[in-house]
Amino acid sequence: MNGPNIPNGVGRRGFLASAAAVAGTGLVAADRSTAAAAPAPGTTGVPFHGRHQAGILTPAQRATAFVSFDVTADGRRELADLLRTITDRARFLTAGGTPDPAGITAPPTDSGTLGPQLPADGLTVTVGAGASLFDHRYGLGDRRPRSLTAMPSFPDDDLDPDWCHGDLSVQFCAAGTDTVLHALRDVARHTRGGMQVRWRMDGFVSTPRPTGTPRNHLGFKDGTANPDTTDAREMDRLVWVGKANGEPAWATGGSYQVVRAIRMLVEFWDRVSLPEQERIFGRARDTGAPLDGRHETDTPKYAQDPLGDVIPLDSHIRKANPRTAATADQRILRRAYNYDRGMDSNGNLDMGLLFCCYQQDLARQFETVQKRLAGESLVDYVKPFGGGYFFALPGARDSADWLGRSLLA
Amino acid sequence: MPEPRPVPVSAPPGAAVRRRRVLLAGGAIVAVLAVAAGVLAVGGWTRSRPRQAAASASDGLRHTSVEVSPGGCGRGWTRPEPGKQVFDVRNTSGGAAEVFLTDAKTGAVYAEVEGLGPGAVRRMPVTLGSGSYAFKCVPDDADAVTGPTVRITGGTSTGPAAVPVTQQDLIPAALAYQKWIQARMADLVKRTDVLRAAVDRGDLAAARAAWLPAHLVYERMGAAYGTFGDADAAINGTTAGLSGGVRDAGFTGFHRIEYGLWHGESAHGLRGPADRLDKAVRALRDSWPQQRMNPADLGLRAHEILENTVQFELTGRTDYGSGTNLATARANLDGTEALLGYLRPLLKTRDTGLPELDSWLDRTRRTLDACEHGGRWTPLSALDRTQREKVNADLGGVVERLADVAVLTDIRRTA
Ligand code: HEM
Which of residues 123-162 of B touch A (CB under 8 A)? Predict the structure, then answer.
């Protein structure tokens, strides 16, 4: 035996599992660096390291859990430890591999719900900071991103405080629900004591029917018109916070994340005529084409329809994006999921949209669009009741980096 | 409220002690005998050859097939290599055995496979660095056999290991803890008497004041519930499992009285339940000296007390009106710390997380103490979100770390 190894980095239990050197017979502390062996075959991983976090430009995987946490860590050092732990777990889980054996010193380090070898399964773990993280507790007041506030209530909202805000957002997305839940359970376990779930909403992306963009619970293809995520310059203009945006330096490479839990009154919606449904969105339900086009990918030609005879002026797509030069920099990157969570007290189905979007500037983009949508015909059939504003942290560059390092440095 | 557990009256001998699944399945003693008989029937150890040596499997890890038998314990480990790897241990003998991979110098265990049946093959994943190692094969019915010492050089990390705890190691702790419980019994009876007397004379205000102190004495004795057996249901049962709910005749004890005291029941109606409670705690006190705690239960209890707190107190499930879940949580914490005190000598050399556990216990104590103001405990429902999250987080931090205590103090026979 080569004497007790002092654990370095974050342990099985992660949060506050600092090295505790204890001398004594046969006490061998693990080197707890998570060494990943080969992930289960046939599954692909989304790279974790980078200037930006994964899970933002990544095409929406099939399953998600969006979880808002309140941080219970005591002071700045513990907060740093918490973020390091989240990073380490995310790094390991997104790569997949074989969990470390615990021997007889602890329960198994892994829940086992994915078998002995973890698949990467396209998992992404995306972490954001809410405005409340910048309150008095951690001395981060002067580092708050410029327009990060608690999400206000918009005129058509009916917000439930139990479903709003949070110190941190962690969104898990993967091909399989089992992978999402496994990751949530792993992160919650390793951070136990450091943060508590405030609210959580799970979601899914439907199978494309018959092809193209998957549909939401209202029967419409949802996610068609989005900025081009393969265009790096467009992303730098619309999604990523850069040096020129007047934001604190640490925030470069991050993005404002808006999440809105929006209930859909699906029974009511099913009692609405098809032409009315289509006028509400400005698109055909079957094909997803704009009402002035044939194919889903056709571009609506608002200039040729100034009075809204074909695509009504107050239709969702026309209000959301008038497609003028003046509104071009207001575009947002949407990344929504469907949710389904049982029944309401009146016996109606409780389902809706876990709307999520990313932008460089909250006021210029999301809030402008949201305000323009105020009073649109769709509001009768949907009810935003929760969500929050978060700032998706800059990415972790390499295996030594961690999410939030620049914020806490 | 802890779930009822069958009561092993005395600690069964030998390796069977650690088969807690068997013990808990009920009919403890009978089950243990049956296991022993089975082992004898299969007969002694026979020899056969291991299949193959090192190989790589689909998990990308190095696999080594290793024999478990009296004559060939550890045979097959011919090409030692550092790193994360899997031993596929194969019992080539005629009887069940435990297998351990140990540090050849200290006896610390890196990995174990319990109850490996004849002919069975099981995975034993482990991470090994520089050091000398040896397999130990422990048949259920014979002495342990240690395989050859194998040296590994190189390798940066080694998985965690600990010297196993034996039944012998735990007996002093069990005896001391039993004494500690004994000392609480008098207090329990005394305070329950006060409660009963107040109900008897119809002074419900005094009864409400007397209820909590009596209840907390019992809640502090947490680790002994398994040994109390049916008495626990009579003293501290809830309505769970009772079809009649709070009106069920089977609803007795502290929570039954709590329900009445905080739901406007008359003193007359509460006299019966108070009498019965008083009798139950006296019977418990009188029978305690004849009880024997199973040493194998100590570590388990050290983590289960607060698991129950999380499940039943922090959810308010056991609140029948007094709003004192947090007081109960605090008493459960005391009970856990008392028990840990007796286990500490064993943990000091084994649990790297002990200082961390201690700091979480401190943190939790401070958080809970802040919920008491001049003897009045804040009801769960009166905590704001931040306070409630803090309580949940702290206790969460504690139970996460107490889990190691239970695993480390599981009784293992390696000799
Ligand atoms: C339950 C609520 C919502 C539903 C059912 C919904 C549905 C849709 C549908 C069916 C489309 C057309 C297909 C597509 O391009 O994706 C669309 C487009 C769009 N929606 Fe929503 N949406 C909702 C909420 C919102 C919110 C809250 C915002 C932002 C504040 C928003 C902004 C947009 C934008 C920017 C477009 C693209 C318009 C374009 O560029 O042509 N939507 N939405």
Answer: 123, 125-127, 129-132, 156-162
CA A372 / ligand 1 centre spacing (Å): 12
Q: Give the residue carrying structure tokens 């949802």.
A: A222
| Residue B133 three-state SS | strand
Phi, psi of B155 (to 5 degrees): 95, 135
Residue B201 lies in a domain: yes
Probe site for chain A from B349, B363, B400, B414 (most A CB atoms < 10 A) = B400
B243 and B350 part of one domain: yes
DSSP 8-state class, residue B313: I
**Token output for A342:** 């049982």
Q: Residue A384: beta bridge partners? A: A262
ipTM: 0.91
HSE at residue A201, side-chain half, CA atoms within 13 A, is 30
Rounded Cα distance between A256 and A242, Å, is: 12
Q: Which of B59, B112, B132 sits opposite A104 (nearest CB)?
A: B112
pTM listed for this prediction: 0.91
B311: CATH = 1.20.1420.20
Range of the domain at B230: 167-408
Do B257 and B361 lie in a common domain? yes
Question: Could you tell me the distance, in angstroms and rounded to a whole number, from the CA of residue A222 to the centre of ligand 1?
Answer: 7
Q: Domain count for chain B, please give it.
A: 2
pLDDT in tens, A223-257: 999 999 999 999 999 999 999 999 999 999 999 99
Which of B152, B177, B198 corresponds to the end of one domain?
Answer: B152
d(CA B167, CA B150): 28
B185-233 pLDDT, tens digit per residue, is: 999 999 999 999 999 999 999 999 999 999 999 999 986 677 788 899 9
Q: Which two tokens stand for residue A186?
A: 């792993």
